[in-house]
Structures are given as structure tokens and as C-alpha cells.
Amino acid sequence: MAEEIKNTAPQNLKVTIDNITIDVPAGTTILNAARMIGGEVAPPAMCYYTHLKDSGGKCRTCLVEVSKGSEKDPRPMPKLIASCRTTVMDGMEVKNITSDKVLDARKGVVEFLLINHPLDCPVCDQAGECDLQDLSYEHGAVQTRYEFARRTFEREDIGPYIQLHMTRCILCYRCTYVADQLTDNRFHGILDRGDKSEISTYISKAIENDFSGSMIDVCPVGALTDRTYRFKNRVWFLKPMDAHRDCDKCCGKVTIWNRGDEVYRVTARKDQWGEVQTLPDGKPAWICNTCRFEKKHTDDWVIEGATKIDRHSVISQGHYVGTIAAPDPLEKVLQGRKPHLLLDIHDESEVNTPQVHLSEIEGPAVGKTFNGDPHASGHNVTDVKIGAGPNEKGTDSTNPNTP
Amino acid sequence: MARKLLLEKANIEGIRGYDVYRREGGYKSVEKALKMAPNDIVEEVKKSGLRGRGGAGFPTGMKWSFLAKPEGVARYLVCNADESEPGTFKDRYLMEFLPHLLIEGMIVSAFALGSNVSYIYIRGEYDWITDILDNAIAEAKQYDFLGKNILGSGFDCEIYTHRGAGAYICGEETALIESLEGKRGLPRIKPPFPAVRGVWDCPTVVNNVETLAAVVPIINEGADAYAKIGVGKSTGTKLMSACGNINKPGVYEIDMTMSVQEFIYSDEYCGGIPNGKRLKACIPGGSSVPILPANLLLKTAKGETRLMNYESLADGGFATGSMMGSGGFEVLDEDQCIVRHTMSLARFYHHESCGQCSPCREGTGWMEKILKKIEYGRGELKDIDLLWDIQRKIEGNTICPLGDAAAWPVAAAIRHFRDEFEWHVLHPEECLKTNYGLAHYADTPKSPEGDLVKA
User: What is the pTM of this model?
Assistant: First the structure.
């Protein structure tokens, strides 16, 4: 079952994840190694964000089992470990979806994340591109076992562009890392402790910074939403397009979300893991608030083309790239005989004769092909004038199934 | 009577001050240690078999030898005095009555580890003890045991106290380090371990108060003499803080060869259970270790006498055993309600969860709510299974051991006292008025002194 995947990066360490072996450079985390393999092998991540240093380790959805520590020390790790914060060792063997323990723990984590989540997806702007929706769809239970009051908070506007709906927050801490690492000052943070923790600004101080909007991009749920877009539309009605403009603050490379000619919202470009893309120069493609909130006209942008959404959310529906057609069962049913091109059944009414099996006829069938009494079927359709064509209702009058 | 190594002189008048402490043989270990090579001290501690007294019981010498020693980078020793486990108060006693013993142990340890600056992270509620320690540090400084070039050895040693702000989580070593650095007390994700990146990103050793104090007798009497006390891998003496339904609650220094039965019933220690009540259950090592019913507490599942040491208390794993933990020995008599007790612990862990990782943040609150529901007669039988499932999904899946600490008491209570939980569910009216009493299998003789082997 072992399958080798070659990577162009300097090949240093060998790691086996779910029986697939890959060579990765030293210092790669298990999560990133799994993402290099791709597909289902990559554990879900709610709090880890590649471009935000020190993020991760908190949500525990990316827990994996290490069944062999390394070549040198083959002992398995006693606990499940957070793959986003653990670097690979040479010869490490990791189990993700092949471990029942992992799937069970992940189910537990999803349940924990959801017990205080309002599940107000029908009125949430994030619906359709929400990491938590995807996660609970894939790993969650059908029904909740939580029967107590859920934690609620008042909605809070933080600055002119961002609204915080703390009730939906899963406390991934990503937005605090954005403030620490992208903006020049952090005015918001976590107040209180335990399940009373909340993200809040320091005495509701508005967040005004050129890159504060990136918090919306990194928020995995609908806790931080774009005030200029709230309740304007549903994401799956919008058409995402890659666009750019010359911006002196940021890279200017964005995704604009249109309906008709109207730009409903502007976001950073996301990769298949829902994270901001890396530009060719290696820098993350964060965008500034001017691009995000103020350039809401198609004329502001040079459109490059439709964005292909790789993620598994509702918004990526309709992409049938790479799908494999199911094998045609007809040949098997006909016991090896090839199906024949048949005439229009209504032109040649004899086909209704039950004694003749259509597939047994050589070549295109015509009326003469059929032996036996055409009236024996009980359908006297030969009385209908052949080739009468559409009637005044626009339907074919020769078709017995239409009025 | 077992030998006391730490608390021997605790009752001497004025021992809190430098003069009396010095007269009684204090600071001898510092003089001795400064003549040794630092690595020899580490080897000596390794040889003594001393295990961490904070709860996990990790061999101290090993921990010290893991300390990274890169050139030109400062190393730190941190004393974890953030004792906040319900039922544990041994460090408080030690620091309150023998502050110089801790300072002495810290100087020796700091010298062994090459730490020029050491910190005592002390629980904020122990504010008067902070004053006692500050006073002791000032005295030690005055007599040249702290400061620059102590006793002319060329070794600089400073100790600072730092008060916590009331969070239990800051007893976890990485959260303690974060708090010490002035940040929110959130546990760090390991690796890297503090031995590589601790305080200010420098290699750090974090040790419990009792562990550091135990270094003093090890240096004074030699590792071999220390290792002779106790049994197996549980060497030396251990401070136990006994509380609950016993006649003589308090801090006792025990030799780890003593049986649990002797500890509870002998007059020298806990002095039995008051009012002629019978023993129902016991938490042998602080609130986070599994609770044990009386029958499993006194004898292991194999029928051997359970002793007060790391191995014997853990005998049988979590199915029929518990843990030595931090030494908070809590005894429950037949009048105590296990559901209420578990609820109270769940409330504590819910309140103290830092909220960083999701299983602990959400799970502890959920467990508390379900336990409250059962305790107040509104529970259903399925809640017991749900509770079991929740604790199972918290345990081992969190960043720090607080998740485990929250899950274990609940798991053990259901494991050993499921009948009591069911009784609460099935008798909602009655459970508000009376207690379940003794678990049927925990029936012990009323006066077990008869078969008690006197030491």
C-alpha cells in the first residue's frame, strides 16, 4: 500500500502518514507534511494558520496518533499530539484517518466546539465558507447531546469595518496573532478565563489599522464579519474572481465577489486550505483595508478571471474537475452485447411488441424488423398520423405521454 | 517513628529567623555544595532517586540533566510555589515555618544548575508567606549566602519572589513561566520543553518547593543515605497534607514504607475518623488524582497492603489504583456524598480552566452542569454515560495536564461509585435530603485498629 511521493524540496526526513511516505525538509510540521500529500490525509485545522507565527495547538482538531516516534526512537507517543505544532522526525509514522482513536477524539473536539456555538448558520454571513461547518459536516455527530443554555454575548462593532459576534467564536486566537504580527498595535485580546473567555477590544477601543481586515479572513467562523458586507448576500450566489490593482500598502492581489457588475465584497486570495495564498516572492498575500473595504466598484479592479475554489465548502460546488464517471452498467446487463442505436420509439410503434427484445435486433431497428402483430401490445399508436410534428401547444402530438 | 528530614526542626522556637536556623545546622549544605563540582551535585541528586514532589513524580536528577547548556545563555531555576490543588497545603507549611530551608535548597540547586537568577513563583493568596520568604532572602543576603560571589566562591546567586494572581493553571510549569514573564498564564505547547526554552526563552528548571527543600538533606547526608529511606523508586520522605474526615488534619512527613491504613488510623498521624464513622473513600494525592473506595484504598486489587508511596498507590493503574500526586490526602467518611464531592471538583476545574484549548474549555463546564443536574435530582441515567464519554474525550487531548486532572476525578467517581450516581438519578427526592451512605462494597470494620500493624 506504501506509495512514494517525491517532493522537490530538499529531501531530508522521511515521514509516513496513513501509510503514504513523503520526504520533507527538517522543521516541517506533521500537518504541513500531510498537506503536501493532500486529500483526506491532511488533518483539519481550525486555529493553525501557516502565515501566523505561533498559531495553532489550541483547537485540537488536528490531533494525530504517532505510532512510531522516529527511526532512532521508535516508541509510539503516549498521547495524541497536535500535528500543527509537532515537527516531523526521520522515520516517523503517523496515523490520521487510519486511527480510530484519532477519529473518536476529533469527533469529541467537534462536539466541544459546537456545544456553545449558536448554530445560526441560516443567518450567518460565513455560512458556505465556514471551516466549522465543514468540520462538523465531516466529523460531527447528527445531534447534539448538550442540553444546557449556550453561552451568548452581545454583538460588538470594533471599528467602522468589523463586527464581532463573540457568540460564534471558537477562540482560535488567530485574530490576536493578526493584530500582533500584521498591524502595529494590538488593541484587542482575550478577556476572562475558561469558557467565559471572550475576544474584546480594550474598553471597546476601535481597531483602526490598515491590515485589521485580515482578521475577517483568518476567522474560521462567523465571529468577525465584514460590516460592509453583512447581510448583503449569500456567498454561494456570488461569483468569485481574481483581480488586482496597484496598491501602495499591500500586494493588491485579491478575490472580488461579484453579482452582476456589483462588487459585494473583497477578500484576500485563499489557497485550498482556506488560508491566504503565498505570493511568488514567498510573502503571504495579505490585503489592506483600502482594497478590502473601499474599492467596491468593478472599475477599481483589473479582473484576471474566475477564481477556482478548491475547498470543500458549499461555495466550491459546481466544479466537476477531475471527477471520474461511473462505469456504464449497460454492457454487463446485456451480457456482453453492445447496445444498438434505436430509432425514435414513437416513429416506429412496432417496438411496443413485447415479443421482440430491442437489444437482440441487429443494426438500427425499423418497423419491418419486428415480427408479430403490432396491435398485440394493446397500444394502437399506429393510428396516430406519423410525423405530425408539434401541435399548437408546442408539444409533440405524436408522443403518447404528452397532452 | 520514621525519620524526619525536612520538618525535623519545624517546631523549634524562632527557626524562621536566620540565627536559630543557622545554629541548628542550617546552610551547611551550601558550604558543602560550593566545594563540589556542579555536575557532581546533579549526579548526587540523580543517585538519591529524588522524585518531583509537585505531582507527576518525575525523577529530579533526570530533569536537571536534561537542562540545555548553550554557551553564553543564562539558565534559570524557578521554584513552583503556586500550590493551589484543593487538599494540598504541604508547601505552605514548609515555607511558613522553614523559609530558610527552601532558600538553602534553592542556592544548592541554583549552583548545581548554574542559575545566577532564580525565582520563587508563589501563590498570590499566600501573601504573608511571600513576606516571610522576602525576609529570609534579605537575611541570607546579609550573611553572604545570596548576592554576588557568595561565600567567596565566585558564584553569583539571586532569588526573587513573584506573586501569582490567583490562577490554578499557573502551577503548570509553562503557564507559570508565561505568568512570570508578565503574560497571560496560558500553558505553552510542548515541545520545546522548559529545559530548552523556558523563562525569557532560556533553559529553565521548574521544581516544586518540597523537591528543592529535599536537596538539602541529600547534600548533607549523601545520596546513598537518602536513597536508603523509603522503598524501591520512592526514596526519601514525603510531606503529606492530610485533610477531610480525620481526627488530626495537618502536614505529616512520612517514610514511604508506611501503609495507608496506618497513616489514616494511627494516633501519630491522622488519628482515625471522627465520631466513630467508617471510611468511605479517599483521594490520596490531591484533588486531581482518582478517588479510591475504602476497599481498594487499604488493599490493592491483588490483596496486598497498600503503602504510601508512588508505586503502591498507583498499583493497578487507574482501574483499581490512584496516584501519589502532590500529597493532598483527603479522607471521606460514610456521610459524604460522592456526587456532590465530584461536582465540587468539577466546578473547581471548570473555574480554573484557562480556556485555551477546546476540550478543556468546553468539556469542564459541561461536566459541571451535568453533575449539578444529577446532584440536584434532575439527572437521567443516560447522563452518567454521557459524563463518562465527555471525560474520555477530554483526557489526553488537551495542551496541559489540567484536562486530565479534570477528567480523572469524574472518571474514578463513576468507575467506583456508579451505584451512587444511579441512586441519585432514581431517587431524585431522597437524594436532596439524605446521603447514599457507604458504598456496599466499601464496608470496612468500624475499628480497624485491631488488625493494624503498629510501627
Answer: 0.84
